[in-house]
Write a structure and sequence with these properties.
With 225 residues, the protein is of the alpha/beta class. 36% of the residues lie in helices and 14% in strands.
Length: 225
């Protein structure tokens, strides 16, 4: 919390950037939770494997996932969202960030129709890959599918929107899709992360409560590398 007597306007604003899959959703991903509703968990697991180990491009992943999700409805997305294994304390952390006069945003490669449901939880902004509206009547536009490099670009756009500097940002992530943004900001929290973020994080957290991960920012960061 802010120290007694300190005016929050006396310091630069901070923009907190959160990944979704594997970070806010512990041990799972939007695509996994959506696929569970449609009975295609095995098929999406194979796509996830190809993405993580065989270099499947995000736009090709989306095109193939769209084929699996041809009959997807908004109600099924809502069920997937509500049933996902979210970290505890997300709303509380974002309320705390807002109370400090700071900002929080989610940037993810997952579909925009899933991540935008986090706006009522307190995020100032959400950015996901652009998918056709539900129910699907057209194909995925490959140009709207984000890749890992897009996270830094979007972070810079958000900095301009909120009037903050990239050097005043904090990133939370868990995997290779977060490596570029971790390398671009001075503070980064690896949340239940894999080896791709080794040496890039200033703080490391394993557990199920975002409040605990957020509290690490009040401690002295360790050096990278």
């Amino acid at each position: 919390m802010e120290s007694p007597g300190k005016n929050i306007h006396d310091r630069p604003r901070t923009l907190h950037l959160f990944d979704l899959d594997g970070t806010l959703i512990r041990g799972s991903a939007a695509a996994v939770e959506i696929s569970r509703q449609l009975g295609v968990s095995a098929e999406i697991a194979e796509l996830e494997r190809e993405f993580l180990t065989a270099g499947l491009a995000p736009d090709e992943f989306a095109v193939r996932a769209r084929e699996l999700w041809a009959e997807l409805t908004a109600a099924q997305v809502e069920t997937a969202f509500e049933g996902a294994p979210w970290l505890a304390g997300i709303r509380e952390v974002w309320a705390d960030i807002r109370a400090r006069g700071d900002y929080c945003a989610v940037i993810t490669l997952s579909p925009d129709f899933f991540v935008e449901r986090l706006l009522p939880w307190g995020a100032h902004a959400t950015h996901g890959s652009r998918w056709p509206a539900l129910p699907f009547t057209g194909p995925v536009d490959r140009s709207g599918i984000l890749d890992t490099a897009a996270k830094v670009r979007i972070a810079n756009e958000l900095c301009k929107r909120f009037g903050v500097r990239l050097e005043d940002c904090v990133a939370f992530g868990d995997s290779m899709s977060d490596a570029a943004i971790f390398a671009s900001v001075p503070r980064a929290v690896a949340v239940n992360a894999d080896h791709h973020l080794t040496g890039l994080a200033t703080h490391t957290y394993r557990g199920g409560d975002l409040r605990e991960a957020f509290e690490l920012l009040s401690t002295r960061p360790h050096s990278r590398g």
